[in-house]
Design brief:
This protein is an alpha/beta fold. The protein has a single domain (about 60-275), classed as TIM Barrel (Alpha-Beta Barrel), CATH 3.20.20. It has helices at about 10-15, 40-50, 75-95, 110-130, 150-160, 175-180, 185-200, 235-240, 265-275; strands at about 20-25, 60, 100, 105, 135-140, 145-150, 170-175, 205-210, 215, 225, 250-255. The strands form 3 sheets. A 7-stranded parallel β-sheet has the order 1-2-3-5-7-8-11. α3 links the parallel β2 and β3 (about 100). α3 packs across α4 (about 110-130). It is globular and about 50 Å long. The structure holds manganese (II) ion (MN) (2 copies) and zinc ion. One manganese (II) ion binds near residues 139, 173 and 255. The site of one manganese (II) ion has 4 residues, from loops.
């Protein structure tokens, strides 16, 4: 949900599409710095959220897109660490339990070097934010270019290297795992993919889900989101996921194109509720 006009404006937007969960940015998503969130703003966010059906533990944030913990450029690494610390502190102030992060792009240094650097820097960030409870949620990515985190094995290895499991977690993006080559379109392949997720990452680490269909085919490694049921993934995968008891308490958000009137969000929500055999609006 957009935070245009301030983070405290997002809950009413969520309520307008009958949300029970929500993802927001905690500052401008294309800038290194932003004005701090004031105490009154945080209080207004909490008060606005209370008027909705969105509990705070179903709210999660997404980091700005400039952060790259696997960068080979020292100035980018330093800015990335500082930005991640700042965003975690913003989340803590708002009471948000999870902050979604793309693991990073190694820019040619190699996957192993990248994973080690990301783990070391996450460790530093965690140690610099001892009073923050917000988890860093590593997002599964599509695998474009030198992006790390397209395989469950890479995400699992990253988590294992970090000493504070209570500060870490995972966000599963359906478009990204499909583009990375994990099929979920029928019962047998869905089961195989999720078994591998359990083996390599573990459902106990799963703290957020992005529900997106894909404009590109299985294994394309291209990250383009499509409306639910309208892309190469199709409705059956979402029906299977919504019926999967391991996903039942995990907050989910859409990341699909929309206009300001949120008509597309309502349409995607209606599709998901139909697939979950529930009525929408609830
Ligand atoms: Mn993302
Ligand atoms: Mn995503
Ligand atoms: Zn994406």
């Amino acid at each position: 949900m957009s935070i245009a006009g301030g983070v405290e404006k997002s809950p009413s937007r969520g309520a307008s599409i009958h949300s029970t969960a929500m993802q927001i940015f905690v500052k401008n998503n294309n800038r290194w710095e932003g004005p701090p969130i004031s105490g009154p703003q945080a209080a207004a966010f909490a008060a606005e959220l209370k008027k909705t059906h969105i509990p705070i533990d179903h709210v999660f944030a997404h980091t700005c897109y400039l952060i790259n913990l696997a960068s080979t450029k020292p100035d980018i690494v330093e800015k990335s660490v500082n930005a991640l610390v700042d965003e975690l502190e913003r989340c803590e102030l708002l009471g948000i339990p999870g902050l979604v992060l793309h693991p990073g792009s190694h820019l040619g240094a190699g996957i192993d070097a990248g994973i080690s650097q990301i783990a070391d820097l996450c460790q530093q960030v965690i140690e610099r934010t001892p009073n923050v409870r917000t988890r860093i949620l590593m997002e599964t990515v599509a695998g474009q270019g030198t992006n790390i985190g397209a395989s469950f094995g890479e995400i699992g290895l990253l988590l294992k290297k970090i000493k504070n499991p209570k500060r870490m977690g995972v966000c599963l993006d359906t478009c990204h795992i499909f583009a990375a080559g994990y099929d979920i379109r029928s019962e047998d392949v869905y089961a195989r993919t999720m078994d591998e997720f359990e083996r390599e990452v573990g459902f106990k680490s799963l703290k957020a889900i992005h529900l997106n269909d894909s404009k590109h085919p299985l294994g394309s490694r291209k990250d383009r989101h499509e409306h639910i049921g309208k892309g190469h993934i199709g409705e059956e995968a979402f029906r299977l996921l919504l019926a999967d008891s391991r996903m039942a308490r995990i907050p989910m958000s859409l990341e699909t194109d929309k206009d300001e009137d949120l008509k597309e969000d309502r349409e995607n929500m209606a599709t998901l509720y139909r697939l979950a055999k529930a009525s929408y609006p609830p």
